[in-house]
Amino acid sequence: MTSLITMDDLTNEEIISILDIAEQMLPIARGEAYTPILSGKVLANLFFEPSTRTRMSFEAAMKRLGGSVLNLGDVSTSSVVKGETLFDTMQMMDGYADIAVIRHPRQGAAKYSSDAVEIPVINAGDGAGHHPTQTLLDLFTIRKCHGTLEGLQVALVGDLRYGRTVHSLSGALARFGSSLTFISPSSLSMPREIVQDLRNSGVDIVETEDFLGSIESLDVIYMTRIQKERFPDEEEYRKVAGVFCLTAKDLVNAKKNMIIMHPLPRVNEIAPDVDSTPHAKYFEQAFYGVVARMALLCRLLEVDVQEAIE
Ligand code: NCD
């Protein structure tokens, strides 16, 4: 793997190896140890769409490992406003950085960017396409909480049409043998080609609009935000805004060890009274973004973590 554009760029063995390395990174991410194994390396953070967690956790990952970060910053202060093409902006990156992270509103933009450069490119979200690094931290969280990725009952809830996190996560979970329930309004159902691909590979999928009708059987509930910015018009968004909201009282029949995840930001999909239940894992999940990204950066920059740490 030289770039990470979709989860198909990783084998199951590579995913497990990244999660194992991420586990070793926990003390470094918490600031309890300092191991500058990426010293001298430079990462370019190219965010053409808003981001808090993804951008900052890449920066934290790089800096805690001794590397440094260049930020494109606010797109309105870059040459993009002068009409520079993405291809030309990317061409510069080979000369400025050792690795680039890109988020862009256009589906396919990360792949397009990786074709423009020699350095590894990481897709941090391409429109309604994919978000593979979110999947790595999601898998890390699930394995941390359940001790395994195999054979879990997972519900993906909300905007499955435009939500890139669930596009990447569904395929990855299926590869580890999870059963998937897709819960969404019919207008926001999982794209047909994703459902078809999953079914063709023998995955057990239920699609429903019934929010949490079968909560007692679930190991993971993965909530998502309705992706307002991807709707062609505001009126369509208003029809589905706020359609699902999980509250603490919905959880009475849940398994004790059922976990609730969310890539964040949440708008109103999870009521604040859920935060203090033992099921709530979304803030812990966001922290795991640092270790998952540390492990990925080491892999793409070809740093042998075992050797470097010993
Ligand atoms: C997600 C995204 O950008 O797709 N955010 C994130 O990276 N944690 C989810 C979202 O914006 O709803």
SSE topology:
Blueprint: H1 12-24, H2 26-29, E1 42-47, H3 53-64, E2 68-71, H4 86-96, E3 99-104, H5 109-114, E4 121-126, H6 132-146, E5 153-157, H7 164-175, E6 179-183, H8 192-200, E7 205-208, E8 220-223, H9 234-240, E9 259-261, H10 282-300, H11 305-309
Parallel strand pairs: 1-2, 1-3, 3-4, 5-6, 5-8, 6-7, 8-9
Helix pairs in contact: 1-6, 1-10, 3-10, 6-7, 6-10
The chain binds N-carbamoyl-L-aspartate.
Can you describe this structure?
With 310 residues, the protein is an alpha/beta fold. It folds into two domains: 7-130 and 289-309, Aspartate/ornithine carbamoyltransferase (Rossmann fold); 132-286, Rossmann fold. Helix content is 36%, strand content 14%. The chain has eleven helices and nine strands. The strands form two sheets. A five-stranded parallel beta sheet has the order 7-6-5-8-9, with helices on one face. A four-stranded parallel beta sheet has the order 2-1-3-4, with helices on both faces. The radius of gyration is 19 Å and the shape is globular. It binds N-carbamoyl-L-aspartate.
Q: TL;DR of this structure?
A:
By secondary structure, the chain is α/β, with parallel strands linked by helices. It has helices at residues 12-24, 26-29, 53-64, 86-96, 109-114, 132-146, 164-175, 192-200, 234-240, 282-300, 305-309, and strands at residues 42-47, 68-71, 99-104, 121-126, 153-157, 179-183, 205-208, 220-223, 259-261. The structure holds N-carbamoyl-L-aspartate.
